[in-house]
Structure prediction request, 321 residues.
Amino acid sequence: MFKFSPRNPEKTGDDRPADSLWGYVWRMSGWHQVVVCSLAVLVAALGIAPIELQRRIVDNAITPQDFDLLITLAALYLGLIVVHGGIKFVLRIYEGWLSESAIQYNRKHLTRLHAHNEAGSQDESNGRAVSIIGSEIEKLGGFVGDGLSQPVVNSGMLIFGLGYMISVEPMIGLIGVIALMPQVALVPVIQKRINALIEARVEKMRDVSDELSEMSTDKDDDEQLRPINKGITALFDNRMQLFVLKFGMKSLINLLNALAPICVLFVGGYLVIQGQTSVGIIVAFISGFDRMSSPMRELLSYYRVAAQAAVQHKMIAKWMQ
Prediction:
């Protein structure tokens, strides 16, 4: 389907693992990241533009009962949504192609490396190689496509949205800034513990894969299954700890996101009653906070994915060496 290909490390003759996760991303995609990030900025800007259109529809068309202006603004709103959706679709396809191209290259490269390695002929290394080439490299390679563009999209929407709100109505805009501060402070603390659990899980999964590859009909089944079952139980405990941290953090973030619209209604309603702002601004701001809650969740999710990718990059690079 796509005849072009991402940057190929084999052409440089450099067969060593990249020094860092970001070095790996650049090695796999190169200048494609510039194009992807440019599309991401455009998606972010177009994603916030409807907020101003909503304000104008309420204040300039509905309130004065200007039907002609209402038709014009509604058509512009619809066109903006279509264009935004089209560019976002192109961005997602581009990200997906970069990810799958990286995964394809990595699997071929690591399979060849394993086949030519002297340790590759030893049974005890086969299970670990299957785990790395099968599942671990998919998660790492999947980071190549949206590793830079997704934080650009989501942080761009937050910056554009908060900037617009503060410029239109500073008092209400500051509510958004205050609502984000606890989330920004909380995530790194919890993520540090999640990173440790992820690394322990990957290592334990490799150990289980090694034990499975070493099973033999010449040995006692109970003796062979004992360490495997113990490893599976450890994986279960690890996953449950991850669930508690992951979903606990999400619940807290959802609560904080839900408080912002209530504050907007209260403070904005007071300003409307005092004649200091308009109903259109309140409507647009509530929609704006709703739009920004999704990018905030995506950024927090991205933080987790990036941390997991960094851990897996480090462990795969160590295995290659």
Q: What stands out?
A: The two ends are 35 Å apart (CA to CA).
